[in-house]
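We store chain and fold; example below:
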Amino acid sequence: MASTNSTSTDPLPSSSSDDIAVKAVNKRYEGLVTVRTKAIKGKGAWYWAHLEPILVRNPDTGVPKSVKLKCSLCDSVFSASNPSRTASEHLKRGTCSNFSSGLKPGSVPSPLPISSVAGSNRKRGSPGSPLPYQNHALAMVEIGYPQVHGNTVNQQNQHHLVLSGGKEDLCALAMFEDSVKKLKSPKTSPGPALSKDQVNSALELLADWFYECCGSVSLSTIEHRKFQAFLGQVGLPATSLRREISGPRLDARFSEAKAESEAKIRDAMFFQVASDGWKNRNWYSLCCGGENLVKFMVNLPNGTSVFQKAVFTGGVVSSKYAEEVLWETVTGVSGSVVQRCVGIVADKFKAKALRNLEIQNHWMVNTSCQLQGFISLIKDFNNELPLFRVVTENCIKVANFVNNESQVRNIFVKYRMQELDYAGLLRVPSPKCDPLKNFASVFPMLEDILTCARVIQMVMLEDTFKVMCMEDPLAREVAGMVQNEGFWNELEAVYSLVKLIKGMVQDMEAERPLLGRCLPLWEELRTKVKEWCAKYNVVEGPVEKILEKRFRKNYHPAWSAAFILDPLYLIKDTSGKYLPPFKCLTREQEKDVDKLLTRLASREEAHVVLMELMKWRSEGLDPLYAQAVQMKQRDPVTGKMKVANPLSSRLVWETCLCELKSLGKIAVRLIFLHATSCGFKSNWSFMRKISANKNSRIGLERAQKMIYIAAHAKLERRDFSSEEEKDAELLAMTGSEDGMLAEVYADATLV
């Protein structure tokens, strides 16, 4: 009974005690690893070159339970409680058959570790052990320190060595010692053995990573000796990665990606071709010898996009050539049924190439990219609005004065460092470009001057600058501008207008709006521009005139038709019906809807389509289905409200509105069309490398395949950003002092 009671009261080991034990084991292991790492670098005991700490885990739970020492020469395992004693008993006393501490007749002496050459005065033997063999072999010499045996110092056997290369020779000496060790003990610590399937799987993942980086990693980099050493450490065999990645593995991966894309296109009833890259980009032309990379994608009704091809164009491209390439792409994707191609969206050639193809093929709807329309609006304001010219000229005068006058520059750099923790100068446009025509080169300067407004004001208050104003008329002029409130108001006005438009462009890049969204986008822009005019006391007339001129240049009748036919934009009236927003259209836009639908319908169905349009206008959609289509939810990433089911607009026409059969056939082909041509963004450095090797047929073919694989992977995961943008975000988040590098990345216009 007593024994029973004693047994029942025995305390059970708690989880907290287990955690403490595990932490102690991990701490012991990490400590030994740290000591060994330092010793290998020459700052510890010699035996760590042969003893390696290992963590032993419980086979049932996987929890660390003890730390052991493993001999790298014979794979024996020992307790880690006393590494020094283990080294003495196992290594020095001859227990390890692969280690020899003394010179045997006819044998090669074991070299002392490089730590001894670097000046270690540790004991090299136990009392009574034979003296280490001393001769002129470099790797076995103690430099500047006597040998210690017991408690006596053998000054007579001390050997001083002077290396002709100085301390730099120690690295070469260490390499020489390693060679001697390999000859003496050729057996090395084996890495993890991988099966053939594991090796193939690892190489396949490595190749996919390289392809999907799309040039961020060069072929020469993967053969770097450090990278090769890393692969050896993880158990991959020594092989030529260049041949692995650019050979049959590349062909197989390309064929697989192409087969997947073609299968998706075959499954779709219709599609849209998107072409991006026709628009000349100054930075890209400079890097790639005046050539552009035009990318073609296929937008499918289910909301996905697949990559089709990439084409290099030489310099300036004619509209006729673009028309031929676009039609060749359409026929290549469609096969014999070209009517499957609903239309084309491109960043250039709206007036000629796209228009001609639309006239020749009545079922097509060819539109220009909305992104380019908004970007071109900034250029219009810069060219036609006097405010932009005044602000640009004034800011160039201020920036050049601050950067070029040595006294002012030194004061500016000092105060900028104090206020903003950055000592750079103001960014100014390149002398090679006309700032009045190329606003992209002006915007960074405006941003810098606004950011440094307080710094520039502090410079003007310096006594040195006041003295300069008395002698230099330019200094007085600059001081007058900077101290004038109107200068800063005008600068802020221009900057905020451009920032407003750029913000809408970035949203379009992220959301990739459909055609029905075009009219609401331009109306949203009109509202914001009116608010801007009121805030900065700018006359609305000239601004609205420039905006309307750009709108008319980009406008396509399909904008109005898609806006009317998409259930997403139905408006609830007083009777509770959800009706098409005809009241949001002008009289001319209503006529455009009738004309477009008549053109897209067959001759036999044209009148039927117009009758069904009247029914759609008067009856609309059942409120329950309309609310379901327009239901929104918050995006967990951006925090913005988005449509819960973007495909529901098309599905409603194919199910609930099946009685409007003729109109429905046109509606489903219109409302899925994309308003932008941008897809994934390429790495511009990779494009430059391709351009440099464009005369090599094999090299260009490999590059095309790599682009295809990278684009296919990016579109699969809906990643439309570039590596440069991701690097810029990373640098911005870390808050590093190299903020200028992040700005350079972020300001670069990407492919």
Residues 485-511 form the longest helix (27 residues). The two ends are 85 Å apart (CA to CA). The first strand starts at residue 51 and ends at 57. The mean pLDDT is 79.
